[in-house]
Amino acid sequence: MLQQFSLISATLALSNPLQAALRSRGKRMGIVVFSYAHRRRNPSEQTRYPAFADALETLDHIHIYNGGGLQTSVAGWDRAFAIKVRRRCEELGLFFEGQIKLPADEADIDRFEDEIRAGKAAGAKVVRIAVGGRRYEDFGTAEGFKAMKDGARKSLRWAEPIARKHRIQIAIENHKDWRIPDMLELVEGISSEYVGVCLDTGNSISLLEHPMETAEAFAKYTFSTHIKDMAVAPYEEGFLLSEVPVGMGFLDMKRIFDICEQANPNIQFNLEMITRNALKVPCLTDKYWATFDEIRGHRLAKALAMVRENASDQLTSIEGKEGDALYRYEEANIIDSVEYGERRLGLKG
Fold this sequence. Notes:
The protein has helices at 2-15, 17-22, 55-64, 79-92, 109-121, 135-138, 142-166, 180-190, 211-218, 253-263, 297-310, 323-344, and strands at residues 30-32, 69-73, 95-99, 126-129, 169-173, 195-200, 222-226, 229-235, 238-244, 270-271, 279-281. By secondary structure, the chain is α/β, with parallel strands linked by helices. It has one domain: Divalent-metal-dependent TIM barrel enzymes (TIM Barrel, Alpha-Beta Barrel), CATH 3.20.20. The chain has an eight-stranded parallel β-sheet with strand order 7-6-5-4-3-2-1-10. Helix 3 links the parallel strand 1 (30-32) and strand 2. Helix 4 runs parallel beside helix 5 (109-121), helix 7 (142-166) packs parallel to helix 8 and helix 9 runs parallel beside helix 10. The radius of gyration is 21 Å and the shape is globular. The two termini are 30 Å apart. The model is unreliable at 1-16 (pLDDT under 50).
């Protein structure tokens, strides 16, 4: 009878999507340091939310609310400090991922390798890299964006042998710059097991791509993640795009997580909940289209339809929030996201 009851319970759990979502993935939500965009710049010591002195303090803090790991910059770290970070992670049962910059030129290669060494000494198997910024703000011509792409390819050709030497993966973020064809061209052009993607689940909306489309296209190359849920609303020049606590936006997070884990069972999910006012995506202006000759009208139409279908009046806002009120709001958004991950996405250990 006990065996039969166990089988029935297991069958019911598998047939119930909510129960399936509640099963542990055997990992917890990591935190990207940019989630503390305000607190890490806090100049005051007379506060309940002082800036973290270093990665060790950050690790101690996120462990309090059951964060699973940390992704942060390793710039300037020496080996001794990196080893302290690794040991603290081991003590707390956390993972660590680094953030570094690609070499800007040949003279910068040594700096890059030093940071790769630091990341590995700290326990990182993956380092996240961002190359560009907001394409539609940074470039006024297609030629300018092409020059940035060419520079990134050159930098990756310098970086890949170093990553291979130290056996650490480089994960390039799809910031608000690389559309799917651009990123695939970059990664597949290098064709290395050490060069892949840091999948940001929300950024590519600003490039008129649907979040599921981006996740599916990048899944097999995804080494790391920036997890963010998004809310949108129309405005006169395009649409507003806002990070919101996970579960409050329109992204199908469970499906995205499943896609990532099917392609890479060892993937870690890193929350990047940036508490700020909504960003403007001015896709109805001439300036926006300066670098997008390859996009056809139906792409814009689909993106605006997505905005209309998911329009929200719950966009994140920091208007009127200063000091501890702002830091408290930031912290609450992070903790709400971690707790939602535990309750609904199986991120608990």
